[in-house]
Amino acid sequence: MILNYGKIAQIAKNLIGSNGTKVVLKNPMGTPVYNPQTNEYETPEILYNGIAIIANYKDELIDGTLIQSGDRLVKAVLDGEPMAGISKLDVYNTEGVKVDTLNIINFNPVKPNGSILIMYSLQCRK
Known about the structure:
By secondary structure, the protein is mainly β. It has a single domain, classed as Bacteriophage SPP1 head-tail adaptor protein (Thrombin, subunit H, Beta Barrel), CATH 2.40.10.270. The chain has one helix spanning about 5-20; strands spanning about 20-30, 35, 40, 45-55, 70-80, 90, 100-110, 120-125. The longest helix has 15 residues, at about 5-20.
């Protein structure tokens, strides 16, 4: 049986979209730039829209090292690819108000046939 991974990717996007929450992936780019208005250095970012389902890890998976208490398991459809250890994920409520920012610790692209991306599985931490 040959699977249509393009169709599976669309189904995943529809399911996550109808049950998930809006997120914005923030990937830093370039070197920090001084902002005289805030008197701070700011790193330029590329923003990518997405939709995600956010859950807690099962207690038996939390080892205190690789997966820590409070880490979140995120299944997301994103317009861009995250970068482990430096990307952030802004989470929005149904009214479009940012309610949280998560650091992306690790991610795995879900590509069952090696080429068509279905979604990303992210390990996030506050």
